[in-house]
Records
---
Amino acid sequence: MHDLSPAKIFSGSASMYLAEEIAQNFGVNLGKTTLTRFSDGEFLTSYDETVRGRYVFIIQSTFAPVDNVFELLMMVDAAKRASAYKVAAVIPYFGFARQDRKDKPRVTIGAKMMANLLQAAGVDRIMTMELHADQIQGFFDVPVDHLYSSSIFMPYIKSLNLEGLTVASPDIGGSKRANVYSKYLKTDLVICHKTRKKENVVDEMTVIGDVEGKNIILVDDIIDTAGTIAKAADMMMDKGAKSVRAVITHPVLSGPAYERIRDSSLIELITTNTIPIKHDCSKIKVLSVAELFADVIKKVYNYQSISSSFLF
């Protein structure tokens, strides 16, 4: 067991905004690093302070571009080579998680490859939030702390004091997640059924359940191009819903997403800061995950149970 000398928290360039808030909640200053970029596109990561014998937490979400992934891997490698006691990769948004299986011939399992790369770099622990598929934890041979955003979203949903509240899943795959919200909030549950002809394009959608006169909360882990959420919100309003909100953990928001949200029937998109919001949008409400991550980092560092940090 280490002597509990102060933990050190560092950040990759993509998550600096969040890491500063996590470090503040933890009670330490964010560690100093340097990222040197060369004219050919290569880059070099280095620590500007000693990490010898320290428990190092590196915060970096792995959203696009893929440089963010490689920067995290290099930071893990640099910490191990500088004799850090242990290195934990804190990945609020775990990129490539949607590639969790072979769903057609001759494709990669990107999430497993990510796990292999992180372990090859020398990571001792993974801390992440709302994986697209729970079984990704099994891709790792090191401990994985899988946090849920429900502990952040539930109090906000309750504060809205909505009558006739109904939880909805935008697709069959998310029904388990929506069911947990429904049970906790003691509401009805409806499910959307969608078909796709190609990725990121919804072809047809129907709703299973009654939405007439209800205040709908759509629950999902990722919003990418916002096609599914916008279509679901518009369809539910057409079927007589009183209002539609979306509660989604990771705001990938690529392509026409912001325009679709703005033009949709959604009253509000409630999300987190695991990925930074690129454009202002009056419909987007961001709740911070910093306090939750700081609390779990503190408990892991002090060898305390983290089960109390999970709502489900």
Note: The chain has eight helices and 14 strands.
---
Amino acid sequence: MNNVTNNKNAVTIIGLGPMGQAMATVYLNEGYRVNVWNRTASRAERIVEKGAIKANTVVDALGASKFVILSLTDYRAMYTIFAGAEDALRDRLIVNLSSDTPDKTRESATWLKSHGAELLVGGIMVPAELVGKEGAYGFYSGPKAAFDTHEASLRLIGRADYVGEDPGLAQFYYQAQLDIFLTSLAAYLHATALVGSAGVSAKTFLPYAMKTFESMSVIGALAEAADHIDSGKYPGDMANVIMMGATADHIVRASQTAGINTVLPEAVKTLYDHTIAAGRGKDGWPSLFEAIKKNS
């Protein structure tokens, strides 16, 4: 690959959706030589106007820098894009920020290694408009030496938290955070529908919902739960499973009476039911973890 730039501040970005565009803009503003490629070539026009260099082919894009960031729908898209360009992968670091399952990331690490490339798995935990801004962060896993070499560049798009050599680890962290996020949003919508059935507007209820999310008691409960989970001991002197399970049952029945969808509260109630059936009714609510971690 004789055409690769020797500029250490060079990056190739493949995939120019909102996240790819945002990262390209950050690197351009930091004085990087930014090379871009997208399957729909017209998507590159706006970022090229800002100073990026559009590669005509994937081979050209890989040849422009040894530091390559992918921002794609999933890992399957990577195989599609690199089909026929495998020789150009040699000596490249592929930082794949696409979302997928941990096993898919591990498989891709093996596949890239067979073509002479390294994979650093990443997951950016902010939307595109916050990339490169205060509070932005991401998880990374894979070869530590590769991470160390490019850490300064990765930190430009957000705090870079390295979580281990296993390529699947960053994806575990990423999906776990989204698990909390998506479930919390669904819970808010369900709660809003519940009060809405009584004629309460979303705007009227919003301050109370926000107070729950911001509550220090919630934050404290999470910290306490983490200690109990790691120790495997679940004292039930405060909020035990039977008490919390009764509340879960009340939410289900209130939802039924209101005529709204009960899938979400029933799922929560099921966890309490399983935990009680396992003989943990008098344990603290974090003991639900024992029911969750077993696929039964």
Note: Residues 168-196 form the longest helix (29 residues).
---
Amino acid sequence: MTPDFEGTLEAMTLVLVRVSGLMVFAPVFSSQAIPPRVKAAFVLAVSFLVAPVVAQFPRAHAELGLLAVLGELSVGLVFGLTLSLLFESLEFAGQVMGFQFSFSLVNLMDPNAPVQTPLMGQMFGLLGTLTLLGAGLHRTMLAALLRTFATAPVGTVTLDPRAGLALLPMAGGIFAAALQLSAPVLGATLLAELAVALAGKLSPTLPVMALTVPVKTLLGYGVLIGALALWPHWIEGRFTALLDEAGRMLAGTAGTA
């Protein structure tokens, strides 16, 4: 074995670890709907093509070691946790709307995880996945990961506690984003409840309890269908912002492994 071949093989192994982190943690790529053999073949193909190039980057340190492997794996972890905040916001918004639609007890098994999720939350999660695939953002995600080899060369990534602390305020934005998405439906259903309550005061014989749920559901669905036209633009903008934030966090993790 020549030294060049050994260096390329070590660089390919580190690249494989970084790309496999994306397949484990990142949305869409981590879906259980993708067969494991397809994921393995994709990771091997990308690593084989990218390793000879990234090994020649300045400051690249393609030597196997425990710290180097953990650092490469942390890149996929940062990408996955950051981008998963978008889907958490969508599922939380669906859960809030489910309470207004009286669907709080309707749960389904999530195909992407072995847990039960609210019906509306799962629907919005599938809508987010469809938007990402339709807009080609999965390719953008992969391209962003490959660009990290320039800002954080292979073998030089170290775990930085500041990156974890930066995720805390971003996680706090889940609640604000969910309220922003569900605000039109919440406002419409609240007005429907007030209207039915006032009608019940004016006419005591009116079956208020029997009218509240269908009126809220029909009005809420009407407002939701009208608001869905704006959701793809919001999802793309949120995704781009989270992807840029993940790139900024990874730019500060490059060091001497």
Note: The first strand starts at residue 107 and ends at 109.
---
Amino acid sequence: MKNKMLKSINIWIIALGLLSVPLFFSCKEDVYSLGAAPTADQVSIEKIAGADANHWILKNKSTTTGIAYWDLGNGGKVSGNEVSVFYPDVDTYTIALTLVTNGGMATSSIVHSQTVADPKSGNLVKGGKLATPGDIAQWTIQRINNMDASVVFSGGWATIDNTPWTWGQVAIYQPIQVVAGQKYKVDLAFKTNGVTNGWFKVYACTSQPVQLTEYTGAILVGEIGIWGDWAVQGPPLSGLFSTINNPDSGLKSGGIVTFETSGTIWLEIQGGAQELNDGVSFTNISFRGVQ
């Protein structure tokens, strides 16, 4: 029998520098030198000493002047030469470091493998990666109103879409067993290229969602309000749900929820808009006990 207390994580790190565009113009021609991209020995991943397993620090050790941007491979995006990350699930994460300098582009790569003990942070969501038919079967699609809206599962992502100008709304949900007084944290990876007058919410429902009814219960885990024509007025939004910010957004209580009684709750992810354009997409859904 497989020992579930040991997790093997394989992490690919890709480092690259990008060509930037001069912001000022003059009659004199400017000359830009080639910025050196980080090499394999200048990118490291180290376990945080004394921390629970699966907590790591990513370090950019390049001496090249620039700004370091990390794609964490789980939907998260952060900046900084030294960042802490948490990978609680067994998987292969592709972590990309982009070093923006004053010129040039080069690449290097390194493979890091490490076997670690699993902390008490098991994901209670079933099928959270939406990668297989079995994953998708764990979710129930809920139509929120009679307008045309759909959830399309493809490539490990769920995409909420609707017919333009219908205000179509739709959700997916699944039951989860919780313990009274235990703290839980909810998160997911999210992306959109922009919608017209839309919203995206995550609820921990204390009663089962009902077809053709919008759930508006008290436990709103978080929301991303995408009001206005974000296809024009705002940039694309992407990253972990817990880190996305725009004027109408907010993760309630840091994404931490507790319940007064033990039993079944329903994790619901819902969205809608006047027009969803290319839709809003999400994956890597997690609901974990935290200390």
Note: The chain has two domains: 6-117, 133-290.
